[in-house]
Structures
1.
Amino acid sequence: MTEIRFYGEGLAGFDRKKPLPGRLIVVEGTDGVGRSTQIALLREWVESKGYAVQATGLKRSALAGVGIKQAMQGHTLGNITANLFYATDMVDRLEKVIIPALRAGFVVLTDRYVYSIIARALVRGVDPTWIRSIFGFALVPDAVFYLQADLPHLIPRVLGARGFDYWESGMDFVAQHDYFDAFVEYQSSLLAQFEAMAKEYVFRSIDATASIRDVFRTLKGEMKEVLSDMKPISPKKAEKELADVKAVDRVAVPGRKHEK
Amino acid sequence: MAHLADGRSLPGKLFIVEGIDGSGKSTQLDLLRKWLVGEGYLVAFSEWNSSPLVKSTTKLGKKELMLTPSSFSLIHAADLADRTERQILPALKAGAIVLADRYIYTAFGRDVARGVSPSWVRKVYDFAVRPTVALYFRVPLEESLRRILDGRPQLKYYEAGMDLRLSHDPYESFALFQRRILDEYEKMVDEFGLTVIDATLPLVEQQEIVREIVTPHLPGALQAEPSAWREVLAGESVYGRYLGEVLPEREA
């Protein structure tokens, strides 16, 4: 990373002296905006330029990924619990996937980051100070690409892809009885929340109403800029570095330095 | 009364017990629960790390040694959040007595002993209801260690604080870890106004003190059974002798 910064107090046991030569790139945006498509394209392109890429995204942690998905299936997940579950997922991926990869010189591409979690919490009326202070452990990324599209563009995409989902429609709290109305109300407030966050968190907004090709071209241009001061590292070398980083982490001693 | 973090009060009463392993707090809470039930109160009981929704994730993390100080902290917070949203808060809103074996102070003690920032972990638990009474069972480290370790039990990895790498010997690691937690508890007595109970006193004496402390808070607490149906039963010449077998006092 060009500069190691956290949104708050940082991560317990994080060694600030060791450099993170990789880059942390976030792709954000609401449901159906085309994040996964663009990340898949971007990943291939960045790899073709000779960089090693680590892809990750919400609910993919080894620790809490399955647990969250199971809890969501039962529709029994309360508001505060959901946020802390997401935070557990986030911190596990940060410590076990993102930071080791950054240490080893990977370009880390993450499908959503703390912003999505904060936005979904805020529209559900969670205390803004509380939710922000929890994510004080999160690294400030090198770039946040915010894929922006309005509701009239989003609805056909969601319909064409997989239809409306219970959580994506905010059915857990929106006072609407059918999925369509709920989706419209929920996603509108999410969009408003993202707009409000764009400045605070310095999003690079990208018009995602354009064609897939045009969006990708814009992203590629932005990406070139982010990677301009970074030398490619071959995937083979990066994998070896990563194995070394993980070996060191296994014997790391959290807390020991406090002991006499 | 119990209070929400923003100061609003709830009609129910939240009594919680804290202390290091081997302080005898669970025994005292169990005695208190039986007494309160006997007095006719509706008592909800909540144990640390027991949310059906979150437990399996914590178990996985512990079994596979995946937990770091931060994820250990957050998953336990998620556990209390689930119990708060689904069990503790509804019971307190209904005016009932809630008993909790370990509470936020356990997290503050253990997580800070693991190197997590004290201010961060306190902020994380902002959602938690402030207890009516927080009983802290104070016991000298040597005494608690004797109680726990005399049988040379198999200590679990995180339980022994092995993740802190204080010692290769689980028993020594456990002792060093408990020392740190004890220090944190002592700091919290003033910070949170914990009510200290001398856990070296005989069991019966401790229980008398505990009952004396909670008694002033009991008037108005929700009663378990609006006596009506017991009276109806009595009219039918049955006394509910076997009800205990079908209605477990305490949920598993």
2.
Amino acid sequence: MNVVVVLAVFAASGVEFVEALTIFLAARSVGGWRPAIWGTVVALVALAALVAAFGYAILALFPIGIFRALVGLILLLFGLKWLRKAVLRSSGRKAMHDEALIYEREVRELQAKGGQNADSLAFATAFNGVLLEGIEVIFIVLTLGANAGLLPSAILGAAIAFVVVAVAGIALRTPLSRVPENALKWIVGTMLSAFGTFWAGEGMGVHWLGSDLSIIGLIVLFALLSLSLRRWLAPRAAHQAA
Amino acid sequence: MRKVWEVLLDLIYEDAFQFLGPIVGLALVWLLARVTHTPWLGLLLFAIVGLSLFLSLRREQRQG
């Protein structure tokens, strides 16, 4: 069991599950529980079918070297996207992610489509939201868990995140706006960028100093880099806003 | 089909540094790894990725 991978997947998929929960609750507020739950269940079945059809086939088709480089590159691009967003938000250049606001906007948009059947609208909304966020979770689990022996750690991280968000959602029945999503995205962006750089580099023939331990060094380097970029960007954002 | 290309081009244009930087960095590291196995290659890769992120943010900042 790799604790770093469990934590990285827990945080990354937790963010996606919180977003899916917001869409699910918006769908429920328009069409009630039944169509929203059905939309979610059908989306989960579709996701399971996707994993069964493509997940292991992809792992089996590519030689591990090429696969590792490809996975590393995708992880790196994904991590950089999150890191960039987190730096822009924390420096004031981009509005902070707010689940309560997103929920209100989603409900308004759904109510504006009032002419349609509320049940089918709620079903389609829950289905789309869960499917899209779920694909991101699968992507994170498969890429981070792709290396031998890490898949159980990645699945465990995602499973814990699912249970935590589902239990909190059932108990509170409101969007989880108190989850520090921006901070989580920063941490996850740092971790994904570090794992991505390590694996992509290894796939390209880099011999890392200290082998797997250099992942920790990369996490520290990406954290320092993003903090420096935030410090560099924050005064400029304040100056432009004035 | 045209729309797919437009979306792809928009994506690359929007985040050109962030997308192309790591790819160029990996290609360079792959070439260098053919001739040397120095651990500094890893640091070079990190430096190129970091530079890509910096350039991408600077572009965003200049656009206001």
